[in-house]
Predict the 3D structure of the following.
Amino acid sequence: MIPIRNKKSVFLALFLVISFFSCDDIIEFIQFEPLENAVWENSKNVTFNFSIQDTISPKNLFIHVRNTGEYPFSNMYVITTLTFPDETKVIDTLQYEMADVSGKFLGKGISDIKESKLFYKEQKIFPKAGKYQFQVRQAMRKNGEVQPLQKLNGIQDIGFSIEKVN
């Protein structure tokens, strides 16, 4: 017979293992690319290559941004390009809120680094099986200026993920 204290430990360990594996079941692809010195240069496309086999089930696509306290804006503009296996491209310009009205960053994290998980496409059904490419670049500019910022400070990592829709 297992003592009560050990039963609780076994139950807790089993619960944690099951929770760990069940959370990962929805993630089909996730990858992060670090940016040198937490600076995102305007000319730097961050590229993610992935394969799709399931052309029936909808998926949610996310852009992940890990920013430091050095990030100087409350929002972020990005230009994305999704390239299909037949070389068709879908280009979008997107804006995301990065901070609330008081200037507090909206991402999750207990340190100076905050991670924001930003919707890129909801319930996307990929029409063709094969190899895809997702690219994202920053498109920030100062108010009243036409030229984009050459260097965007405070961005440590950019990520991309694909999740099953429940």
The first strand starts at residue 27 and ends at 34. The radius of gyration is 20 Å. Strands lie at 27-34, 39-41, 46-52, 59-67, 75-83, 89-97, 114-124, 130-138, 151-153, 155-164.
